Amino acid sequence: MVSSIKRRSASTVATALLAAGAIIAPTAAEAAPAPSSGTAALAPGSPAVLPTQVHMGKNVTFGGGVPVGGWYSLSVYPSGSYSYSGHMHDSGAPSYNFAGVCVVRFSDGTAFVFQTSGRMHGTFESGSRDYNWSRSASRKSIRDAWRASGGGWSARCTNKVNADIGALVDSTIQAVGYAAKVIAIVA
Question: Which of 5, 91, 108, 162 has its CA 20 to 30 A from that of 45?
């Protein structure tokens, strides 16, 4: 199952930053269609904080009678911090291996791969029916890629059971387009 690309508007934050003089609006000669990610030009001497974030989250179910479901959430911020978390539950008799991959590619060509995998035990096997993950941290490389791209990004998340994690990572990276550099983050 593949989630759709989500992009959050930051018009309220941008309006507040414009009013405070922290960012400047382009003149009529500089005006161009705004990128769909909601980037803004920083005023000289202003703090290097862009008024946008990447956030993707979704409930996950699988077809074909697979009794596994749950949710995931990924948030990435201009400061370089991120949070990737989720929960999967096996409510059936067989056990399943879960793999989740989210790729965020910034317009400078740097792609960040957030991946997780784990096992959920069904009725016929002892162990937990749940697989939970949560990872929050900050990476300078995310902040640098965000700044280099002006906040432009594309993203995709893919979740599967009993799949090859390597193939899942490769197909998800291909779905967001060419990546000059790939940085893995494992949750």
Answer: 108
> Half-sphere exposure of 120 toward its Cβ, with a 13 Å CA cutoff?
26
Residue 58 host element (H or E): strand 54-61
For residue 174, give the amino acid letter.
Answer: Q
Number of neighbouring beta carbons within 10 Å of residue 174: 12
Q: Tens of pLDDT along 99-142?
A: 999 999 999 999 999 999 999 999 999 999 999 999 999 999 99
Task: Give the Cβ contact number of residue 128 at 10 Å.
Answer: 12
Pairwise CA distance, residues 61 & 6, whole Å: 19
**Taking the mean position of all CA atoms in its chain, how far away is CA 102?**
5
Can you tell me the mean pLDDT for 9-19? 34
Buried b or exposed e, range 18-46, using 16+ CB within 10 angstroms: eeeebbeeeeeeeeeeebebbbbebeeee
3-state secondary structure of 66: coil
C-alpha–C-alpha distance, residues 48 and 144, integer Å: 11
Helix residue ranges, H only, 40-164: 140-149
- Please write the tens of the pLDDT for every residue from 160-186: 999 999 999 999 999 998 899 999 988
